[in-house]
Amino acid sequence: QVQMVQSGAEVKKPGASVKVSCKISGHTLIEVSMHWVRQAPGKGLEWMGGFDPEDREIIYAQKFQGRVTMTEDTSTNTAYMELSSLRSEDTAVYYCTTLKYYYDSSADRENWFDPWGQGTLVTVSS
Amino acid sequence: DIVLTQSPGTLSLSPGERATLSCRASQSISSSYLAWYQQKPGQAPRLLIFGASSRATGIPDRFSGSGSGTDFTLTISRLEPEDFAVYYCQQYGSSPLVTFGPGTKVDIK
Asked: How many CB pairs under 8 A join A and B?
């Protein structure tokens, strides 16, 4: 079973960048498809992007394209999400999660996120 | 683009009652793409259901999922005290690749 431990809380000024890490154990990064989801205070879940195993590439949500970069260090089994040009609206808890999938009897791919990291609070404030 | 709408926004029920949560997609999606998550305050989301109706490992059988096309339902047959939480539906596979619904809060009446 994959386990994930994320880096600690960050406080950043508007315009700065933040890099959140997610270290996995129980599997190697090569074996999983890592995704990132964020949640602003009191709000719902918002997908930012991740590795799609069918396209075999990282796909970013349109909202974050140009501002987010997701990378992996396979030597340390650690995934990273860097968000630049931070603004107050980026204040949120950022989660890493792994995509699981399964081809059902109709050859449709069932997809779900499990497990999730514990979350990293990023606060953007002047 | 696929938009997921959940209703009601808040469901106030008592322990032992049945909860029925709705998730509606703006366009038809494969049931394979639909998952449900539970989230409690201060915690990460927890997978409940994938493929619209398959329970995840360790999820009690009082949780069940159903639906197809544009209408999906999460049912909690008899609410336990630990079930009061926020529930999100999510699709992965249609455009945009991943969408979450806004959530339904199940709180104690």
From this structure: 78
Question: Are the beta carbons of A112 and B46 separated by less than 8 Å?
Answer: no
Taking an 8 Å cut-off on Cβ atoms, the answer to whether B45 and A116 are in contact is: yes
Residue B42 carries which DSSP code? T
Question: How many other CB atoms are there within 10 angstroms of residue A35's CB atom?
Answer: 26
* Average pLDDT of adjacent 10-residue blocks, chain A of 126 residues: 95 98 94 96 98 92 97 96 98 97 83 96 97
CA angle centred on B74, ends B105 and B10, rounded to 5°: 20
pLDDT confidence of residue A109? 85
Which 46-75 residues of chain B touch chain A by CB within 8 A?
46-47, 50-51, 54, 56
Burial (Cβ within 10 Å: 0-12, 13-18, ≥19) of residue B20: middle
